[in-house]
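Everyone, study these two lines:
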Amino acid sequence: MSLTGNNATPKNIQAEKPGIPPWNPADVANSLQGILIYVENEATKAIGWYWTRKQSKARLSQFIRFSAFTLTALGGIFPIAVLMMNPLMKSLGAHYQVPESGLVSSLFVGIAAALYGLDKAFGYSSGWTRYVLTATILEKTLGEFRIQWLLLMAKLTSPPTPDQIQDLLKCAQDFRAAVGAAVLQETKDWVTEFQNNLLELERDTRAQLETLRTKVEKSIQTKAEETRTGAIELSVSSAEDAAGFRYDVLLEGEAGVAARETVTGTKSWAVTGIAPGQYRLTLTAKVRGQDSVVRKIVIVKPGEVTEIAAKLQE
């Protein structure tokens, strides 16, 4: 877990090189001092790494959460502010009015949600808390080790017995293992969080793609439905009163004349292939020497037959 290079914090915690200092049976005191320095350095390096690395995560987490909170608040305040500002601006003679569209509020809230998602995806806030917790645990472990080492040193005889040396080495071993376990646990937590975030991101992406696909299919279906033509069936109850049992039918829409026909000898008239929309149907005929004109508004729906009843008037 040594720091490589200069005083800059490395990207990762790396193992000490060349490693554990050699043991010299002829110089037990210096050998024990070397072991003590080694295990303390390993712990302090890990502690320093976590405290240093947590700063960037803390700044990003605080910035993201402050921005998200501010944007969310603006999303709720903006509509109210517009309602208050526009009358004031009008009273001051201003010609410009702030739009009251809810799209701006939705934009604020959407950006805030994206920031929260960014924080969760990259683990700025969770990493910050993990680093602080791990560094605190390591500091606590280091403090306890120093007390335990001091207690064992206070019991040393001159020269120290093999059991006393064994107790000191076991204390250093347990401490080194505890430091490694704390770092390992933090790494496991990071891996678990990273994998869970990837799975959640994958699920969200699939859900969004499925939603998008459904919308596209619905849009295509709606467009296809809207382009389907309809039909009109006209029934003229008094068609026999028209001169020669004859009347004219004119169907007009936004694009102009959609259908025109002179009907003879029948009370019904039908036309197909009419685009959906609103039309004006006009019937004209001669009834007992008088012009008879009947007009009706017709709504043609996609794929449906619109039935109309009319009566020629004298």
